[in-house]
Amino acid sequence: MVSMKEFDYLGKGEVYLDSACQSLRPRPVIEAINQYYTEHNSCGERVKYKWGVITDDKVEATREKVLKYLKLSSRKYTVSFTLNTTYGINLILSQLNPKHFSKIITSEIEHNSPFLSSMAFSKRTGLPREVIERNEDGSIDVDEYDFKRAVVVVNCASNFDGRKLKNIKELTKVVHKAGGIIIIDAAQAMAHSADILKGVEVDAICFSAHKMYAPSLGVIVWRDDLTEKMEVGFIGGGMVDDVKKESYLLSAESKEHRYTRFESGLQAWGEIVGFGAALDWLNGLSKKDWKNLEDNTRELYDFLANSDKVHFVNNEANPTMSFYVEGLDSHMLGNALSRKNIMARTGYFCAHYYLDHVLGLPPLLRFSLGLHNRPEDIDKVKKVMKEVI
Predict the structure, then answer these.
(1) What's the confidence (pLDDT) of residue 388?
(2) Could you tell me the CA-to-CA distances from 239 to 16, 92, 281 in Å, in that order?
(3) End-to-end distance of the chain based on CA atoms, in angstroms?
(4) Which residues of the chain have pLDDT under 70?
(5) Which domain range does residue 383 map to?
(6) For labeling, which of 239, 248, 255, 355 is most exposed (least CB within 10 Å)?
(7) Of 335, 333, 331, 332, the residue nearest 385 (C-alpha)
């Protein structure tokens, strides 16, 4: 089982239920970051001294761990580091050459990351934008839409109820057959639902390490041939091998340094090292750890679902669950929970269009569980919520 010593900075009685925003970091991750700053604090890819070599080795190892985690081949895919999911999606869309595409497609249940960036892409290129529906189980009826030469940007797990893109493999095949590309927002899937992505050869996967028990960091996993449909438009130090007065030679021209295509300037080396430690930590978890998360999720979901006053967005139990309590303002409820040392998110969770304007819901309360939660956390939440309800 996950040891609570790994999260010993949590105060007595504190219950953290905001993992969908950012997960807590276990001690091995924190120690890896501290080790970078105290033992080999250096600029990666730029120096020849010993500290720099250690940093380079650890950063390269993290890239390899990401591909292994997703079961993708290094012969086809490259890993680049950015700021966060939003930055990664925008970085790709802002450099796509519109001559290769006929439209951009996103879905109604998207986080603002793909939703707004798809708007910006449409405005920049003049190409039409289409917002398609998602089924209650998260899937997309591929026969209902025309994906010819489309840029498809969708999540594979929702950030308000966790519903998954269950037919992601079918969608990917249909989009590629139609001459389009598919970019996946995987921010909510990588920690607890990565299996849905493993081995699926989409064109790009964007996610945030800080939602998978790692430091604040963005990641892009992308097919090498994606750049054939892009134009360099965001460039700087660390991306070139040579510069003349009116020209430059991109480092990304070689497979060995292809990751630099999306890595301008100095990178967050300590965070990347910490992310590598987080992947090791996740890979080392036991079936009991995942069963604990599943049991806690079911216990809390069933408790809330049994109340007539609780109105869920969820159609099924998921570590991420959003709801409102009839007759109560969710923001006030969030404050009340905070006074009991229960930390949860309130509002529309950057999914304003769907939650507010499609469903017409009031602001919501979101509980998003993590691997650090224990049965006693759930017992406390149930006790407090029972008093409130």
Answers:
(1) 86
(2) 40, 16, 31
(3) 33
(4) 1
(5) 4-25+286-388
(6) 255
(7) 333
Whether 89 and 152 have beta carbons less than 8 Å apart is answered as no
Q: What is the pLDDT of residues 321-352, one digit of tens each?
A: 999 999 999 999 999 999 999 999 999 999 99
pLDDT digits (tens, 9 = 90+) for 297-310: 999 999 999 999 99
Do 295 and 272 sit in the same domain of this protein? no
Picking from 282, 305, 333, the residue at the C-terminal end of a domain is: 282
The single-letter DSSP state of residue 201 is -
Which helix (H) or strand (E) segment holds residue 27: the answer is: helix 27-39
Q: Which of 229, 262, 282 is the last residue of a domain?
A: 282
Kindly provide the b/e burial profile for residues 187-200, where b requires at least 16 CB atoms within 10 angstroms of the residue's own CB. bbbbbbbbebbeeb
Q: Rounded to whole angstroms, how far apart are CA atoms 125 and 209?
A: 30
Whether residues 83 and 222 fall in one domain: yes
Helix (H) or strand (E) holding 348: none
**0.85 exceeded by pTM:** yes
Residues 278, 301, single domain; the answer is no
Task: Give the C-alpha distances (Å, rounded to integers) separating 132 from 154, 165, 187.
Answer: 10, 13, 20
